[in-house]
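re: that chain from earlier
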Amino acid sequence: MQVYLNGRFSSRDDAAISINDRGFLFGDGIYEVIRIINGRLFRLDAHMRRMDRGLGVLEIPFTGQQRAELPAIMGKLIADNRLEKGEGTIYLQITRGAALPRTHAYPPDKTPPTVLVMASPFVPVKEILEKGGHAIMVPDIRWSRCDLKTINLLPNVMAAHEEKKRNAGGVLMVRDGFITEGYKNNVFAVIDGVLWTYPDSPYILSGITRDVVFEIAEQEGIAVRLCPVGEKQIFKADEVMLTGTITDIQPVVSIDGHRIGAGRPGPVTKRLQQGLRHRMDTE
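^ sequence. v structure.
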């Protein structure tokens, strides 16, 4: 697999970063994961806007020229890795770069950022999309700026490990008695025909697929309520789903062993899945 790192294309095995890189030492950086469908990048502009915001809030220097070069870099990696057909993902990571001495304070503004771009094949798990997954709830122990897609992911890693230990197919994070999101996706619940989800907040990442769901809901006449769902209230929902770039729209048919709705993907979930698939295939 070919990757791009700091101006150079190389094999994945040959790519290496400095031990002084602030991403390695401090988790000082941001990332994006973008879906590839038959060589096309789905909702690239939305991902780039979110990346721009993260870089701006974190004050990571990144020039307009560097940003303008990214689509061509991604396109070359798609071609070099033979991803023009089928599905895949682009992983884009930008850190504050390598600097000495090792100190918590930001280094001088002229420190070049570390830019990594990787393209990989991806195969959606159709069974869980069609039949739904059995999710668990875990405490949301992340920091209070989850709206920034940073590479500080240890709490997410711990949640994923708990998911694996418990043989689950999804995780719902709970903060102050309310469901915030999953460790890699947003959460929606259907209650009396209305689609509920946590409002935009520093406690969640506003997902690109989440925004697509809002578009589909408006087109389909599905009412949306931006309101947190309680950890006990979620058990009374008619439908629950997880949404994300590599999650798509995944039904949740049980939570902590409690059946959700009829215990199978519901009609609202299916309408949203169809709408997302149509956009992914045509945009």
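Residues 115 and 173 are 30 Å apart (CA to CA).
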